[in-house]
Amino acid sequence: MNPHDFLDVDRDLSDEERAIRDTVRDYSAAELLPHVADWYDSGTIPDPRGLAKGFGKLGLLGMHLTGYGCAGTSAVSYGLACRELEAVDSGLRSFVSVQGSLAMTAIHRYGTEEQRQEWLPRMATGEALGCFGLTEPDSGSDPGSMRTRARRDGSDWVLDGTKMWITNGSVADCAVVWAATDEGIRGFLVPTSTPGFTANVVHGKLSLRASITSELVLDGVRLPSDALLPGAEGLKAPLSCLSEARYGIVWGVAGAARDCLVSAVEYAKEREQFGRPIAGFQLTQLKIADMLVDVNHAMLTALRIGRLKDEGLAKHAHISFGKLANVRAAQRVAAKARSVHGANGITLEYPVMRHMMNLETVATYEGTEEVHALTLGRAVTGLDAFR
Questions:
Q1: Whose CA is closest to 327, among 288, 369, 357?
Q2: Residue burial 81-118, b: 16+ Cβ < 10 Å; e: rest
Q3: Which domains are present in the chain?
Q4: 366 noted as active-site residue
Q5: Crossing angle (nearest 10°) for helices 316-341 and 236-270
Q6: Hey, which end of the chain has fewer CB within 10 Å, N or C?
Q7: CB-CB contact of 132 with 170 (8 Å)
Q8: Beta strands 174-181 and 130-133: pairing type?
Q9: Distance CA 60, CA 62 (A)
Q10: For the stretch 208-219, what's the b/e string if a residue is b when 16 or more beta carbons lie within 10 angstroms of its beta carbon?
Q11: Could you tell me which of 144, 127, 149 has the C-alpha nearest to residue 52?
């Protein structure tokens, strides 16, 4: 039976959804998979603009948005693309997610028509890259405590502060930056060529290495009044964008888990000890069975939340449920798959340790396990335990 999809979850996909799945899967196998181990080993993506343009040709950037050159696909179709990308590497799904679900969504949802026309068509093709500046060195799970400030100076805005762990920050053309003002949290479009804006690449990462991560420094960055995202008022705006990105994670980690399972099954059937393949030993089969259950539960969870999203019924807590459950499942699968591979599992010849390390980042970014657990607790009890 098929370890890729034991419960035949994809049988419930439409013809269009299958076509998108297959297109992204084929592209990933041909253009991404042969290089990703080297990218991970070197700790960077050598040609992020080339990568963006490749994704743009496939229509993956902002694919769930409508107009401005965006594909306008269903939530499930977007999820399937995330699954196939993260089956290669979490950093690649993060690349697409930050561009489309964070930066482009913020502009599409909260920007003016002029801002949309200026940025979205170029971002959809990959000609322009965006990043999303919310997290700070001392402000992760509590974004309301951010120290980045925006003050009025005549008709201009002046921004000062630091953002941390920003994907694509050093290669972006436009940064969506969130700052505290006298009127509350507001969002700004900051062209990265603006004087006073600096992006410093974060080195020494042990996880999500096939991804460019940066620190953003804003030192007296002066912006015209039309840099403000007028529809974004308060924390609800950036958090709504994060919810879009988290939805992609729900699908993405199911892809990472699936890849670990497939690698473990193939390896166990080939690796011989004591005169026979280790796949024939009971303890190995127990690990495989556990992984199989987790992978298929994750795929079912992703599809169900995707269908709810397409019907307009998905709540913030549903996304938290998916991220909490599926990341946990993927981490269990990666750990078991690594043990099946033995010493070989720690090398880049096999994908399992790379996925395992990446999932450590995915578990904490865009909402830690604790934050999502408290979100679920509040949803079913009506009591807020955050403070």
A1: 369
A2: bbbbbbbbbbbbbbbbbbbbbbbbbbbbbbbeeebbeb
A3: 9-125 (1.10.540.10), 130-233 (2.40.110.10), 237-381 (1.20.140.10)
A4: yes
A5: 30
A6: C
A7: no
A8: parallel
A9: 6
A10: bbbbbbbbbbbe
A11: 127
The helix/strand/coil state of 221 is strand
Q: Per-residue pLDDT tens, the chain, 387 aa: give them.
A: 787 899 999 999 999 999 999 999 999 999 999 999 999 999 999 999 999 999 999 999 999 999 999 999 999 999 999 999 999 999 999 999 999 999 999 999 999 999 999 999 999 999 999 999 999 998 877 787 889 999 999 999 999 999 999 999 999 999 999 999 998 999 999 999 999 999 999 999 999 999 999 999 999 999 999 999 999 999 899 989 989 999 999 999 999 999 999 999 999 999 999 999 999 999 999 999 999 999 999 999 999 999 999 999 999 999 999 999 999 999 999 999 999 999 999 999 999 999 999 999 999 988 888 999 999 999 999 998 987
Question: Which residue is catalytic, options 86, 118, 215, 366?
Answer: 366
How far are the Cα atoms of 115, 175, 312 from residue 191, in angstroms, in the given order? Answer: 12, 6, 33
Residues 12, 16, 18, CA angle at the centre, nearest 5°?
Answer: 55
- The CA–CA distances, whole Å, from 321 to 133, 260, 371 equal 25, 22, 11
Give the distance, in angstroms, between the CA of residue 272 and the centroid of all CA atoms in the same chain.
37
Contacts of 357 (CB under 8 A, 6+ apart): 206, 207, 208, 209
Which amino acid, residue 195?
A: P
Tokens encoding 247: 């939805």
